[in-house]
Inverse folding.
């Protein structure tokens, strides 16, 4: 592989992406969209938030991806009694030496599964902020760099469920994408039932990617071309969430309380490049941007109480923005 250059190297990593999807698909049925989004996060070092009712293979998908990728992996189950030190670590007194020593927490890994992240209160959720943004942890008076790559894949239950806490806006914004999951169709669920009911059927997956491969994939994705007109299109989409009246959004614009941050533009750029690469192109199309727009924006477009009363969701507003702002207007 080290001798490959140019088109041969690109083709090699196109095949790697296909192999990863096939391996994860051996265990996780019917969740191609979810697997695609997890791969985007892995290949762009963007944290991913998964939301859906229990039983949609969120945890299984992340666990399986961790087996396919040769990285240090830790799963953290968030519960109401979890403490920040349970995540990042703490200072422990050593009776033999008479000194305090650092005991590192489970965040010291390459890939973290924060399972049911909104089952814990805000102080625990906020403990991840420094890790997610700075890729470092401060214990006592010392900061420790986390090993790269560092990726947080978090799952959460819908906020309407009992015992859940909304994530702080500052933390939510650190997630590259928020992926909303729905139930499988009848045929796929039938296949899942048949497979899982067979206690002897335990599909095994093999390792496809290592750290070197991941960094090489990132280089390949970074080389994907995005034209200036499409860059400006992304900016127009972001600004439409902030100044809806200037984009003639009408009634939908009245529901927006806060628009998307600058991170949204950065993540939309990276995600659209990844989609283009997965589709074996070296250039971004407007369709690539539209494909990732909802996942990048739905947790960053904050609606007001009027929207909640009317049953309006962020996805409804984003869909209207995509209709109003077109590449021809840039």
């Amino acid at each position: 592989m080290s001798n490959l250059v140019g088109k041969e190297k690109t083709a090699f990593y196109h095949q790697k992406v296909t192999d990863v999807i096939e391996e994860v698909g051996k265990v996780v049925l019917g969740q191609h969209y979810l697997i695609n989004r997890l791969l985007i996060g892995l290949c762009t070092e963007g944290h991913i938030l998964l939301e859906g009712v229990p039983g949609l293979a969120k945890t299984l998908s992340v666990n399986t991806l961790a087996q396919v990728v040769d990285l240090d992996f830790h799963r953290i189950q968030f519960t109401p009694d979890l403490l920040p030190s349970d995540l990042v670590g703490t200072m422990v007194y050593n009776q033999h030496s008479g000194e305090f020593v650092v005991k590192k927490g489970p965040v010291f890994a390459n890939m973290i599964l924060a399972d049911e992240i909104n089952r814990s209160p805000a102080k625990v959720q906020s403990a991840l902020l420094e890790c997610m943004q700075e890729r470092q942890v401060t214990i006592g008076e010392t900061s420790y760099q986390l090993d790269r790559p560092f990726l947080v894949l978090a799952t959460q239950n819908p906020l309407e469920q009992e015992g859940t806490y909304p994530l702080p806006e500052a933390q939510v914004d650190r997630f590259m994408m928020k992926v909303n999951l729905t139930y499988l169709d009848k045929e796929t669920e039938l296949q899942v039932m048949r497979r899982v009911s067979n206690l002897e059927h335990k599909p095994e997956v093999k390792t496809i990617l290592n750290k070197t491969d991941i960094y090489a994939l990132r280089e390949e994705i970074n080389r994907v071309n995005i034209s200036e007109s499409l860059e400006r299109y992304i900016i127009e989409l972001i600004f439409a969430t902030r100044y809806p009246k200037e984009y003639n959004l009408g009634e939908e614009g009245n529901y927006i309380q806060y628009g998307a941050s600058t991170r949204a533009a950065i993540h939309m750029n990276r995600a659209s490049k990844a989609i283009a690469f997965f589709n074996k192109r070296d250039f971004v199309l407007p369709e690539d941007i539209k494909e990732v727009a909802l996942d990048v924006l739905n947790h960053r477009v904050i609606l007001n109480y009027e929207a909640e009363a009317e049953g309006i969701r962020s996805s409804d507003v984003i869909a209207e923005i995509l209709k109003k702002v077109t590449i021809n207007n840039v």
Observations:
- The chain has a mean pLDDT of 88.
